[in-house]
Automatic annotation (TrEMBL):
<dbReference type="InterPro" id="IPR016181">
    <property type="entry name" value="Acyl_CoA_acyltransferase"/>
</dbReference>
<protein>
    <recommendedName>
        <fullName>N-acetyltransferase domain-containing protein</fullName>
    </recommendedName>
</protein>
<feature type="domain" description="N-acetyltransferase">
    <location>
        <begin position="3"/>
        <end position="169"/>
    </location>
</feature>
<dbReference type="InterPro" id="IPR000182">
    <property type="entry name" value="GNAT_dom"/>
</dbReference>
<dbReference type="GO" id="GO:0016747">
    <property type="term" value="F:acyltransferase activity, transferring groups other than amino-acyl groups"/>
</dbReference>
<dbReference type="Pfam" id="PF00583">
    <property type="entry name" value="Acetyltransf_1"/>
</dbReference>
Amino acid sequence: MNYHFRKATLVEIPQIWTIIQQAIARRKNDGSQQWQDGYPNETVIQQDIEKGIGYVLLDDNTVAGYAAILFNDEPAYEQLKGSWLTNGDFVVVHRVAISDDYLGKGLAQKIFLFTEDLAIDNNFFSIKVDTNFDNIPMLKILEKLGYTYCGEVTFRGGVRKAFEKELFK
């Protein structure tokens, strides 16, 4: 498979939204409370793309996954109950979702690895991420990729586990 990662375009919203809806259903089926309150929605995805922070993982020309990648932009992270590994510039990963057609192929991990490359290419050496306490698949991915648990953040009214990974050139 020939995967590549790039900024999403507005014409890809229908494909992305289908993937997000599949991920919402998976979270519900897993018994997770994450994404069960109308977020994310199509408006959020459109805003991501318009801000230039929406990214797609492509298998040739097919959208296989989606994520929002932000640089130095997550106000909730300023209120961490715990301690970040670093205090400098950082990249944030939000809204990671993989198409049902591509499950079990390690694509969420690929998104994180592509994000590490993107961060280093832009001279950012920290990636921060948060997830729900009951999102077991994401917690396993973060552990496997070497993320360190740093504490808890309150995000959209809910307490979330926060992680960081330091990157090196």
